[in-house]
Amino acid sequence: MAMALLPALVLAAIPHGAAACEARITRSGGTLVFDGCISADAAEVFVGALRQPTRDVVVRSTGGAVGPALDMAEALAASGAALTVAGWCASSCANYLLTAAAVSRVPAEAAIVFHGDAGITWQQLQAPGQPPLPPPARAAIEALVTREQAFQTRYPRAADVHRRQAAMLHPAGASLADLGAPDCSGHGRTTWRPSAGLLLRLGLVDEVPATGAAAPAAGPALPAEVSPLGAAAPGDAVDPGEACPVLRGPAARQTPQTPEMPQTPPAPGSAAGAGAPPEPAALSGAR
Q1: Domain carrying residue 88
Q2: How far apart are CA 81 and CA 270, in angstroms?
Q3: 60 — pLDDT class (breaks 50, 70, 90)
Q4: Is residue 71 part of a domain?
Q5: Which residues have a Cβ under 8 Å from the Cβ of 93 and sit 6 or more positions away?
Q6: How high is the mean pLDDT of the chain?
Q7: How many degrees, rounded to 5, is the angle at CA 22 between CA 16 and CA 28?
Q8: Strand-pair category, 56-64 with 82-90
Q9: Is the pTM of this model over 0.70?
Q10: Which DSSP category does 5 fall into?
Q11: Is residue 124 domain-resident?
């Protein structure tokens, strides 16, 4: 598929907190491009943009906050737009956006990275030796986990990813070898990075376009690690032996553009996710 070098409308370039969590959202005709970290501000712009007729969404993201990612995923599903990964989709991008899209396309060279979900983090926070959480934080996390469980019920692919991660993190009856993908240990959590071909065989994505079909055009260098908060972390002091590379090589120095893709008729209208209280630091971007 050839690149469609059409003029793009820049909807937002959003810094959020630390410089590591930024997003750029652009539109070219019926295609919406999301490039960066998922935050509440970025999700608000993304959900608003999906209220316009949208045929395709192109995403490159290392993840971000769980609640805003759920908002984006629910709006994406309601829009009926197809999702194409340009480069990588990790953490909350993989957990929610990839699994909720009506049609998902992952080029063979793309990196898809899973490393747990809100429910798993909640279990870790309740483990012996962990300090007790203040009641408001506990209530907020429980509400978020309940919302995530409802999301997994509504979107079976999300539940399947959760099941595979649970088997991976608690391998009583399964191992990473059984799941058919190598792992790397990043920041104290096991990470699952299946190939696009494996995701297709497992039924977790719909299409694997030919290499380069959604290749980004040249652009600025970007960090290539997933931080504990699921966002790019160029300044973090990371033990190289514990780091899990998202993507290296030429694609790490590129920025997504608008690829030409098969037309997928959009569903009329879109819906944003329900409002939720601010996430505690323990879960904000933890996916």
Answers
A1: 9-117+181-233+241-255
A2: 10
A3: very high
A4: yes
A5: 38, 59, 61, 62, 63, 64, 69
A6: 64
A7: 125
A8: parallel
A9: no
A10: -
A11: no
